Each structure stands twice: as C-alpha cells, then as structure tokens.
Amino acid sequence: MAEQTFIMIKPDGVQRGLVGEIISRFEKKGFYLKGLKLITVDRPFAERHYADLSAKPFFNGLVEYIISGPVVAMVWEGKGVVATGRKLIGATNPLASEPGTIRGDFAIDIGRNVIHGSDSVESATKEIALWFPEGPANWQSSLHSWIYE
Ligand code: IDP
Ligand code: MG
C-alpha cells in the first residue's frame, strides 16, 4: 500500500477558516485525500493522541488546546507523504517555520500552530488507527499517471 500520513487541522485552524487553504496545499502537491472528518475530541482521546508528550510541561495546555473546538482529521496518501507532509507544515515553532510552509504563513505561537502531521511512518500507522478505526477510504485518482512517472 502507498504511504499514508495523519494530518489534523487544529481548533485554531478551523476557527480561522484555514481548512480549505490547507486541504488545497496537500491536493495541489499531488497527495490523495483518503479520510476526512470534522470532530471534537474529548480529553482522554486527546491524551492518547499526544501520549508520547505526557511528561512535557506544556502537555495540559496542549490537551486543552486540542479539545477547545472541532478539528479536521485527515488521511493523506502518496510517495513520501509523511516527510513531505511535515515539510508542507513547517517547523513546530511557527516563528522558525519557513515562509511558504503552513505554519510559516499562518501562525506565530507554538501553542497555536494550526496543524498536526505524523512524524514517522510508524506514528502515522498508530494515529490513523486511533482517528480512523473504520479505516481510510479506498479510491484511486484518475490523475495518477499525470503525477507519477
Ligand atoms: P510537532 O507538532 O511539530 O510534531 P511536537 O514536538 O510533536 O511538535 O509537539 C506537539 C505539539 O505540542 C506542537 O505542535 C505544539 O502545538 C505543542 N508544543 C510543542 N512544544 C511546545 C512548547 O514548548 N510549548 C507549548 N506548546 C508546545
Ligand atoms: Mg509531533
């Protein structure tokens, strides 16, 4: 199966009307949308998603932020989508993110950085299973041979 990643537009991205812009960037790059839902998660769910960060001093604030409103959870597919998705997103601290990246263009504070993307293929598998227990959608783009050699 082609590589997949989990991307989440955080509550600030939804509130600020950045959903269309962000989806558009992934679409235009050539990645395929394989899962999409608007969902408000509860505290235990957010804590599971960020379990690896539970010892960090910012953990509680991070969980509060993620449960503060609906998020857009997505699965994107394509060659190298985990690493390239992270490049489209930009560095964790938006003041250090390059212009042209999502965080570099649309955010300032690290605790309001608009979007999440899986940091490895292994995390992507775990996060997709957590957020999409029903599994991603199964469809193939008719543009495939115009994007892949
Ligand atoms: P990432 O989202 O770029 O993968 P992680 O280190 O996995 O960055 O951290 C997860 C999220 O936790 C970040 O996107 C950010 O919202 C928040 N975060 C990370 N470091 C800090 C911090 O030092 N202060 C406040 N929030 C932080
Ligand atoms: Mg991370």
Question: Your description of this structure?
Answer:
The protein has about 150 residues and is α+β, with helices and mostly antiparallel strands. The chain has one domain (about 5-135): Nucleoside diphosphate kinase-like domain (Alpha-Beta Plaits, 2-Layer Sandwich). Helices cover about 40% and strands about 15% of the residues. It has helices at about 10-15, 20-30, 45-50, 60-65, 80-90, 100-105, 120-130, 145; strands spanning about 5-10, 30-40, 70-75, 115. The chain has a four-stranded antiparallel beta sheet with strand order 2-3-1-4. The two termini are about 15 Å apart. The mean pLDDT is about 100. The structure holds inosine-5'-diphosphate and magnesium ion. Inosine-5'-diphosphate (IDP) binds near residues 53, 62, 92, 111 and 116.
Short description:
With 149 residues, this protein is of the alpha+beta class.
Q: How does the SSE layout of this entry go?
A:
Layout lengths: L3 E6 L1 H5 L3 H11 L2 E8 L3 H7 L9 H8 L4 E7 L3 H9 L12 H5 L8 E3 L3 H11 L12 H4 L2
Antiparallel strand pairs: 1-3, 1-4, 2-3
The structure holds inosine-5'-diphosphate and magnesium ion.
The site of inosine-5'-diphosphate has 9 residues, from loops.
Task: List the main descriptive attributes of the protein structure presented here.
binds inosine-5'-diphosphate, four-stranded antiparallel β-sheet, Alpha-Beta Plaits, 149 residues, alpha+beta, globular
In CATH, the homologous superfamily goes by the name: Nucleoside diphosphate kinase-like domain
| CATH topology-level name | Alpha-Beta Plaits
Tell me how many strands there are: 4
**Terminal Cα span:** 17 Å
In the CATH hierarchy, what is the class? Alpha Beta
- What is the total domain count? 1
Radius of gyration (Å) = 15 Å
Report the average pLDDT across residues. Answer: 98
> Structural class given helices, strands, pairing?
alpha+beta
H/E element order: EHHEHHEHHEHH
Helix content: 40-55%
Q: Report the portion of residues in β strands.
A: 15-25%
User: What is the level-2 CATH architecture name?
Assistant: 2-Layer Sandwich
